[in-house]
Write a structure and sequence with these properties.
Number of strands: 57
Largest sheet: 9 strands, antiparallel
Helix content: 10-25%
Shape: globular
Structural class: alpha+beta
Distance between the termini: 63 Å
Strand content: 25-35%
Oligomer: single chain
Number of helices: 20
Amino acid sequence: MSGTGCAGGSGDIPIFPLAGEVTSSPQSDAKDELYASTYSHANEVAKPGYYKVGLDSGVTAELSATTRTGSAAFTFPADKAKTLMFRTSNSEVGSSDAQVGIDAARRTVSGSVTSGNFCGYLAGVGQRSYYTLHFVAEFDQPFTNQGTWTDTTVTPGSTSARGGTTYGADGWMPPNKGSGGYVGFDSDKVTMRIGISYVSTANALANLRAENPRGTSVAVTAAKAKQTWRKQLHRIEITGGTTDQRTTFYTALYHAQLHPNVFSDVNRQYWGFDQKPHYLARGQQAQYATFSGWDVYRSQLQLVTLLEPERAGDIAQSLLNQATQNDGIWDRWTHASGSTAVMTGDPSAPAVAGIYAFGGTNFDARGALRSLVKAATVPTAKDLSSAGKPVMSIGQRPSLDKYLALHYIPTKSNAWGGAVETLEDVTDDFALAQLALRLAQGTGDTSTYEKFLTRSQYWQNVFNPANGGFIQNRDDNGAWPAFTPSTYDGFAEGSSAQYSWMVPHNRAGLVDAMGGTDAVNQRLDAFFKNPDGTWALTGAGELHAEMDNEPSINTPWIYNYTGRPYQTQETLRQAMNQLWNTSTGGIPGNDDLGAMSSWYVWTALGLYPDVPSRAELQVAAPLFPRAVIHRDGKTIRINAPGADAQYVQSLKVNGKTSTKPWLPESFVQRGGTLDFTLGMTPNKTWGAKDAPPSWRTGEIPFQTSTDTSRVVIAPGTTSAPVALQAHRLSGTAQDVSYTLKTPAGLTATPTTGTFHVDKVGSASVTITAAAGTPDGRYPVTVEMKAADGTALPQVGFTVVVGQPNSFFVLREGVGISDDSSDHTEADYDGGGVSYSRQALAAAGLTAGGTGTVQGLSFTWPDVPAGDPDNVPADGQLLNLNLPAGTTKLSFIGSAVNGNQQTTATLNYADGTTSQIDLSFSDWTLGGGGDTLHYGNVIVATTPYRNESGGGKDNVTTHIFATAPVTLTQTPVSITLPENRDLRLFTVAGGNS
């Protein structure tokens, strides 16, 4: 697999040419100290279809490949033993089974490995096998000896062995487990040909016979591979540019076409997701596998389809086949013949719709649409399960039930994050609308199109104008929790500031919601640049772009929608020049099976499929003076003399002047010629008044909010006014009516009303808690409706009845989960991890229980499961209510996301203050690799912590107490620091 994250994957059946003999089990060589060799890049040759390396051991290896086979030539030092090792069990991340057989008479080594486990160390549901790779290797030289090993035992002369490595908890296989075999030679040079199959050893042999028959040399195989790749890369011819630019371009084009990869055998058989063999249907040329959907749906599949529509159609059919064999579930990140459930969203929808839009129509599109629509409308048991969360969500549409009811995925859900899942879902819904519309042509049935087009506007339900205009998490009751644009809460591999741009099908609606083009342009400028004007394209913090990862890569094209195409042009050129080069590390971030490389190819051509389910192309300045794209007779020619200039001065499309910074779908469908005039200075008028299309049907006119998400009231009192707000997102000014629903013991004044909304409007209400109302947290909901009858998003807030500034009132965080639950009720560190209630109880901390630490007594929080149990430090005033005469004080809690060193202020009754140290060590002590800091002492230790989704993380976890503070008078309160990574559970005091 090319350029993935996590700990890797595949890498099956490692084969190593050893200049020496196998004297101990390679499974015991966990650090590769014996059965490995260093090498120098100076001794490498790498070309498409050919690789050669001279190892420092003296062995030289030459490698080449066909679609389903490989060839190798090994040259050994004459004065050393010549051994070839087959580490059959050692797939990249381990295996559950493996076997090897050696047949000296036939000069063959064969076997298999059963593996999977992609990202499995991140969640227990992923730690499993879902494919078996079979292989047959044939040699041109006889074996002089052979042997095998199982676990730690080597058996010279043996011809068979079996056993997997098992899977490790950290992504790496444990030592001393596994199996393999070795063969020895007299000849200094040995040629090997090897066939693989995911169906059977017989198919592996048939693949070898068909593609790499006996007598075929590495040179011949490499020459054929070279011609194959020459033809493939010739699909885009570029002229001009520097040598490094051309090398970078063709390297990116090469990487962008590696996946998905052929998975079927020469006899048209393949292994299905139901773990059974299948044959290709009539018309399908190949089954494809390993689909990194979340990564590649943006631009990689569109590039593949542009260049090879029929291959892309087979990819779409392959995805449908997988889903059909997988109980109707289209997994978002498939690997070989299994689902991994990794990442977010339902990327098969825009992938399939994008393939169809770009001309890959040779698949059962109607069957795919039916299946995808069912998956988007009928919740399954897996959709309702949190297993695997956060990185893995086993359902195709996690918490689909909540999405259908609320029209967004709320803060607490089965998804990695509610806000990001909503953004992904609306992108997917728009894709279903587009595919449905194309298939409805001639039928007149547009109901599916209309339904999903309306759903594609649900992004508005997680867009909050009151927070500055950002996408953010939203609670089930409509309340907006505490927020900062830098937060990762609710998002995957990015912050709110980075994800808030992700509405590709309705840029116009997003621009209006953010305040218009001027406001958006200023915001984009701040996103891509530091305050001093320097570029901030990666590594500049959560408020800036990360152009080396998927959530940010479409964002520069937004200037095309806001009247400043010249800034799209300069930002893209800067990103290409700054982040991409020919050195190691010249592909920024993870390439993710060609996702990032495809972005570079498109951008270097000056084109981009910004809306992934459609075939309109955004336009910017090409990097090369000339490019020709060959696609089944529908050639696209791009002429851009002086392409070292980065600004478009003018454009002709098929000979006619165009002022549009985008091309219609018909250009992709028919081909054509683009003639650019480029310059060194921006033409600020070109394209400024011809924004690309947006789809706005189904928008709501107003977004709703309150000016607070929690109201604190003592029993028998009335709250300060709470503002009910509506911000106009689209349309015209009108009235909005509201109705409040309160639980028993609380009353709202007024309960109903109306206010006018132009850009923003509001009404004030108060909440009264009756005398005697028990301390607690009570939900209040507000239903709003526009004057034209449009129901607006329900909004809500929590009323906390209790004494202001008390521990009970200030507790906001839920850091303790129950072992018997799915653990989604708690999130202590922002990553879905929490303390175990049972493990804390075993360590002496029970709800309402008392304890001592350093001679000081404390009471552990007595709160119901799932209720807030800790105070994130956020500058609050916390009343201490210490007994008179208290002379020593200590705070009990811990830090998350590393050690947190800070101070706080003690406040005394006479108005004086004093500073104290309020620093905490990280709750896991850096995963066990650190020690206590700041004078902390351990109050309790648990052997594990809970993971959202029901998993368990076997890392030692602690509750700490700060070093005791000696007092000369009893403080009445403490002003906490502003550091939400520091959490307080309770306070300990005494006079010892």
